[in-house]
C-alpha cells in the first residue's frame, strides 16, 4: 500500500486542527431582558435562513420587537391560582354557559357535523370558545409573532416557544398565517386561541379566525388527544385527559368541564 507523503500528512493534520479549533457558528442564546433581544433576533434569523425558511418569514422575524406585555402576562397568570368558584366568577362562567346554550341551538348543524366526525359534543367546544375569546369577540391585540419571538428568546420557557416560533415561520412559509397577525399575550391566534404548532398539527377547515374552522380544529385537537365518543369528560372520566391536554391549569380544566356539562345537559 502506498504511504502518504510527509507533506500530505502535514496538510491533513493542519486541516483537522482547523476543523477542531474553528469557532462554531454563533447560535442564538436566550436572555432575561430586552437588552439582548435584537442580537438574539439577528442570530436566530441566520438559523432560520439555514433551516430553509422563506425570506418573507425571515423578514417577519427581523421585524419583531421585544414584547413587554407578553413577559408581564407570562410572569402573572394569577387567575389560574384562584379557587374554581372565584375563577368562574372572574371569567364569567355563568354567562359563558348561558350564551353557549344559545349558540348550541343556533349552530346545531355545525355541531352535529363536528360530533359525527370527531365524537366531541358541543359543550366543551362552546366552553373553550367562550372562555378563550368570548365567542370570538376578543381575539387579543398583540403582534403574535413578536409575542412568540419574545418567549422563544426568554430563558424561562425558551425551548417550548422556540418550537412555536419555528412553527409560526413555517405557517408564514405556507401562506397560512399573516406575518402581522394579532393574537393574545402568548401569541395564540384565532377564535379558540391556537398556538402555531397546534395550528400546523390540528388546524382544519381554513382560517382559525372563522368560528367554524376554529371549532372543528378544537374538536380535532381533542380527538387527537384521545377523546372517545360518548364517554364522559368530567374529572375522573375518560375524556377529561383531552381537556387537560388543551390547557395545563387545573382550575381552567375543571371550569371547561363544568361549563361544558351545563351546556350539554340543557336541551
Helix content: 55-70%
Oligomer: single chain
Q: What is the count of distinct domains?
A: 2
CATH classification, class level of the largest domain:
Mainly Alpha
Mean pLDDT: 89
CATH architecture of the largest domain: Orthogonal Bundle
- DSSP strand count: 2
Strand content: under 5%
Beginning-to-end CA distance, first to last residue: 88 Å
The computed structural class is mainly alpha
User: Which stretches of 5+ consecutive residues score pLDDT under 50?
Assistant: 7-25
- Figure out the total of helices: 14
Protein name: Murein transglycosylase
Keywords: Signal
InterPro entries: Lysozyme-like_dom_sf, MltB-like, SLT_2
Domain Transglycosylase SLT: 37-233
Characterise this structure.
- With 267 residues, this protein is an all-alpha fold.
- The protein has 2 domains: 83 residues; 135 residues, Lysozyme.
- The chain is built from 14 helices and 2 strands, in the order ααααααααβααβαααα.
- The protein has a two-stranded antiparallel sheet with strand order 1-2.
- The longest helix is centred in the first third of the chain and has 16 residues.
- This is Murein transglycosylase.
- Keywords: Signal.
Amino acid at each position: 500500500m502506498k504511504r502518504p507523503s510527509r507533506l500530505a500528512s502535514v496538510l491533513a493534520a493542519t486541516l483537522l486542527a482547523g476543523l477542531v479549533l474553528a469557532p462554531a457558528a454563533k447560535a442564538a442564546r436566550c436572555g432575561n431582558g430586552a437588552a439582548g433581544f435584537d442580537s438574539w433576533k439577528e442570530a436566530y434569523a441566520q438559523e432560520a435562513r439555514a433551516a430553509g425558511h422563506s425570506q418573507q418569514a425571515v423578514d417577519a422575524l427581523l421585524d419583531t420587537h421585544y414584547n413587554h406585555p407578553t413577559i408581564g402576562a407570562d410572569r402573572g397568570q394569577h387567575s389560574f391560582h384562584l379557587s374554581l368558584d372565584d375563577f368562574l366568577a372572574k371569567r364569567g362562567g355563568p354567562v359563558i354557559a348561558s350564551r353557549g346554550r344559545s349558540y348550541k341551538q343556533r349552530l346545531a348543524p355545525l355541531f352535529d357535523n363536528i360530533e359525527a366526525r370527531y365524537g366531541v359534543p358541543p359543550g366543551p367546544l362552546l366552553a373553550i370558545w367562550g372562555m378563550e375569546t368570548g365567542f370570538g369577540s376578543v381575539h387579543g391585540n398583540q403582534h403574535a409573532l413578536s409575542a412568540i419571538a419574545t418567549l422563544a428568546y426568554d430563558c424561562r420557557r425558551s425551548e417550548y416557544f422556540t418550537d412555536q416560533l419555528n412553527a409560526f415561520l413555517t405557517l408564514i412559509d405556507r401562506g397560512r398565517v399573516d406575518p402581522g397577525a394579532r393574537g393574545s399575550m402568548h401569541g395564540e391566534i384565532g377564535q379558540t386561541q391556537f398556538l402555531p404548532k397546534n395550528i400546523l398539527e390540528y388546524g382544519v377547515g381554513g382560517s382559525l379566525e372563522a368560528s367554524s374552522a376554529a371549532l372543528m380544529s378544537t374538536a380535532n385537537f381533542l380527538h387527537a388527544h384521545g377523546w372517545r365518543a360518548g364517554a364522559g369528560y368530567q374529572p375522573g372520566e375518560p375524556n377529561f385527559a383531552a381537556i387537560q391536554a388543551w390547557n395545563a391549569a387545573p382550575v381552567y380544566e375543571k371550569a371547561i368541564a363544568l361549563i361544558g356539562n351545563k351546556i350539554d345537559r340543557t336541551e
